[in-house]
Predict the 3D structure of the following.
Amino acid sequence: MDQTKIEDYVNQFWDDHITPTLVDYIRIPNKSPGFDPDWIESGHMATALDLAKEWAEKHKPKPSTVHVFQEDNRTPLILIDCPGEAEGNILMYGHLDKQPEMEGWRDGLGPWTPVMEGYKLYGRGGADDGYAMFAATAAVCSLKDQGIKHPRILILIEFSEESGSPDLPFYMDHCSAVIGVPDLVVCLDSGAGNYEQFWTTTSLRGLIGCTVRVDVLTEGVHSGSASGLVPSSFRVLRQLLSKLEDEKTGTILLDELTVEIPDHRVREAVDLIAAMDGETEKFPWHGSMNPSTEDPVESTLRRTWKPALSIVGMDGVPAVKDGGNVLRPYTALRLSMRIPPTLDKEIAVDAMRKALTDDPPNNASVTVEFDEPATGWNAPALEPWLDTAIREASLAYFNKPALSMGEGGTIPFMAMLGEKFPQAQFVITGILGPKSNAHGPNEFVHIPYAKKLTACIASILHKFPNK
């Protein structure tokens, strides 16, 4: 394989066929079904699907077949089936649904307004991870361009990852004959510690999302007459949250939600901090705000292997300007609980449900509705060929060694695959580097990094051993 030709081909492919299409994709407000219950009627997902189908048919590696599945009212699935000349089965993964808009985009930027500033393409869903299907296709096409033989490669693109991938189990069974049994899984939906080398993800936390609602009255009443006698729904909820976490430290109090961190993952965190000269991911701290710990290794483990609770939404509370002297009838909170990579999701759900609903304060009415939960993922040990391929790819295209790290986010499909195909090898990577801000405002694609990562993937595909 001529590495220079691979890089030249990938760079040109990105400039001609990927970046312009990502611009069009960013304009589509294709929010995941969990954030757009009327996604069928709104039609944005159909628009995104049409864009992806048309592009895939035009640029698919020859010979390949593009399959599109959409059963009943489920979100669609795209499979680009690239036959191989060598033995083996490689599955490449990405998704085309998006997180909601989020406030805080700086002037001139917006979630559905693609803006190119220098080498960064801003807009929702480009980096997380609308680029994946296009980059995976480019990697395969770059091998075809040089006449390099490769095993069968299947590019799988779903449309409900940001909602916990509720439709994927169905499609894994429905399309099992096409999907087959992968020997290698390449996922392009993860992050990078910097933009200077190739990164792989070794673990992912799971996610338990739920809405907890506390009702204390059937209607709002004058706070002057009721406060002091009628317990505030917010105060009741605050007490329930204190059963989940220590409000002073953020430590999760449910024993069922903690695991023993493997020694090799602790050593990996130590090695990561050493390689990064003691620096951890930088966040946009406000003013003189301090992190929960100053220990860089502990901070890494808290973000990747320990449970953590976030309050990501609230109902029943008017805006500040509309807040009258009323004791409100209810408060509802949207909870996002990240759980350790090796913890079973059902154990977490049961523990949280019990804590939130057993013996509520003042016998308040408490309802809890859980989303589709997601178990985390812990990578199996790399086979020697893959470890070598990753190292060589990073040196070839970044001139720096590859690094690995745990991620605090969730990719439900990885846990599904790990359970279903325990013999598979995994390369979990992505372009979500510092300040790329997936799910938040000012998300961007770092185009030069994305190009080099695509070339690295092509190199790894090339090194897949003939069986």
Summary: The first strand starts at residue 65 and ends at 69. The chain has two domains: 3-204+376-462, 206-268+301-370.
